[in-house]
Amino acid sequence: MATITFANTKGGAGKTTVALILAAELAQRGHRVALFDSDPQQWITRWHGLGATPANLTLVSNVNEATIELEVKALKKKADYILIDVTGGVTPLLAKAIGLSDRVMIPVQGCAMDAVGGAQVLDILKALDKECAIHIPHSVVLTRINSIITTRALMAVKALLAEQRVQVLDTALIERAAYRDMFVTGGTLYSMDPLRVSNLDKAQDNARLFGDEVISLVPLKVAKPRAAKTETAKNGTAKAEKKTKVAANKPETAKRKVA
Ligand SMILES: Nc1ncnc2c1ncn2[C@@H]1O[C@H](COP(=O)(O)OP(=O)(O)OP(=O)(O)O)[C@@H](O)[C@H]1O
Ligand SMILES: [Mg+2]
């Protein structure tokens, strides 16, 4: 199980949209996904209410700072990915969600205000690292990018992030009607009608690349198969070999150190 929080203290940065695109993409690939909605406006819960949600995508509504830890625990064995959508602002829930995560995704639009919101999230991550020895890997995902023009504002955001040595995902999410329409039609990019939604194929391609990159950054922690355990018990060399393999495959998320 891997947990990812979508955070930017600035409202309207694209957190909910990015979370839903990724949840749908992971579900499309057969992963069991739990999508946490902590927004009082309940955009994801409303989307879910429209129907056509993949069977392997579970919605968890009304998540708050008092319940989030138990909800994550409860889904540990039932979900491959837990995706947490938090609201804007610096809140106790934000800090808790970040602390429970294997990676934090910070959606940033091509404008300076979002970069400021993103910087506040980075401050929380730094404080967790310094004060609690919790280091959470994090990446900025650029959103609502114009597919043709690389704007000055976007260049400014990229420069600011590079200065802070923040990792930016190679895949930016393009401004697409399909990403907005999901919240109106319900369902996913794969259940929408291509005759009604413009450039649906391009939105799907974009989401697939995004999914590929996230999966490579946040791989699933695979439990040791039973057969391998028996083999290991029989043979000490095999044990050493497996240890090396596990170390080689260890996701970056395993670097998290909890005091
Ligand atoms: N890639 C995109 N293409 C088109 N529209 C987008 C894209 N990303 C976000 N939007 C639109 O931008 C607006 C804000 O996005 P969203 O609701 O995801 O932000 P948010 O960070 O979750 O906001 P809040 O802080 O209020 O929860 C929405 O109207 C959404 O449809
Ligand atoms: Mg939101």
**What's the shape?**
globular
Estimate percent helicity.
Answer: 40-55%
Number of strands: 6
Overall tally of domains: 2
- Determine the N-to-C terminus distance: 21 Å
The CATH C-level class name of the largest domain? Alpha Beta
What's the CATH H-level superfamily name of the largest domain? Answer: P-loop containing nucleotide triphosphate hydrolases
Q: Supply the CATH architecture of the largest domain.
A: 3-Layer(aba) Sandwich
Structural class, by secondary structure, is alpha/beta
Question: What portion of the residues fall into strands of 2 or more residues?
Answer: 5-15%
CATH topology of the largest domain: Rossmann fold
The low-pLDDT segments are 228-259
Question: What's the Cα radius of gyration?
Answer: 19 Å
Q: Which ligands occur here? A: adenosine-5'-triphosphate, magnesium ion
Physical arrangement of strands within the biggest beta sheet: 3-2-4-1-5-6
Features:
single chain, 259 residues, alpha/beta, Rossmann fold, 2 domains, six-stranded parallel beta sheet, 6 strands, 46% helix, disordered C terminus, binds adenosine-5'-triphosphate, binds magnesium ion
